[in-house]
Specification:
It contains ten helices and no strands. The protein is mainly alpha-helical. The chain has one domain. Helix 3 packs across helix 7 and helix 6 packs parallel to helix 8. It is elongated and about 90 Å long.
Length: 248
């Protein structure tokens, strides 16, 4: 829509390019972000950009199916049989939980260990999100600073009316750059990372409840219904017991 607005107004893209304004707005806001975080947090935060828009297929049905398969193995062969089954599990969090169960760890301790890991994982995610949220906050602010700088320059050269229009355009374009940084780059990235974090937390919560249910010796069909409660109604119907189903 931004491009359409420029083209429909009859303006040229070059009219919206001003190097000093870019330096003030982009450079100033980026410098503010750099000053707000440690180097390691910055590097991790900027790497989050590629993660945010990378296609991540989070399939809750597959997670629940894996849990049900594990519950069937534990029901038929015992908890110790899960150790061999864990070799085919790709998710390190789920594999860790399985090994805790196999080792006979107290259920409350299993929950505590896994929930602590989840808390730390979410904390790391939020630090990445915070980098983009801070940049979204500073972008418009530095756009306004650039506008004030441009206005001061314009007012100092009021003797030549021909320079007022171009100077005003330069002053205002910094505000535009600040808004683009916030709403075209930083906020979408932060929102996408937040959505990914929420999805991952739901998947991990399903794993925790599933493992504790297996450890308690619950019926696979009961476990399935319990885990489906984490999902929206529209998704629940597509999740069903796989081959080998549970015993009634």
């Amino acid at each position: 829509m931004f491009v359409f607005g420029i083209l429909s107004s009859g303006a040229s893209f070059t009219d919206y390019v001003d190097i000093p304004s870019l330096i003030i707005t982009f450079g100033g806001s980026l410098a503010g972000v750099i000053a707000s975080f440690k180097v390691k947090e910055l590097i991790t935060g900027f790497k989050g950009f590629t993660i945010a828009f990378k296609e991540r297929v989070e399939d809750p049905g597959k997670v629940i199916t894996n849990i049900i398969d594990l519950s069937n193995i534990a029901r038929k062969e015992g908890l110790l049989a899960l150790e061999e089954a864990s070799n085919d599990i790709e998710d390190p969090f789920l594999r860790k939980g399985i090994m805790l169960v196999v080792d006979g760890t107290d259920p409350e301790l299993v929950r505590g260990i896994l929930e602590t890991e989840l808390t730390c994982l979410e904390s790391r995610h939020k630090k990445v999100i915070a980098v983009w949220e801070k940049w979204a906050e500073l972008g418009p602010a530095w756009g306004m600073i650039g506008t004030l700088v441009g206005l001061v320059a314009m007012l100092n050269d009021m003797d030549d009316p021909a320079t007022i229009g171009p100077a005003m355009a330069v002053a205002l374009i910094t505000t535009l750059y600040g808004s683009l940084i916030a709403n075209w780059l930083c906020n979408p990235t932060a929102n996408k990372l937040s959505v990914n974090n929420d999805m991952e937390m739901v998947m991990k919560d399903i794993m925790v409840e599933g493992l504790l249910s297996i450890q308690a010796g619950e019926n696979p069909r009961v476990i399935e219904e319990k885990l489906k409660s984490f999902l929206s109604p529209s998704v629940r119907d597509s999740v069903g017991m796989d081959a080998g189903g549970g015993e009634a």
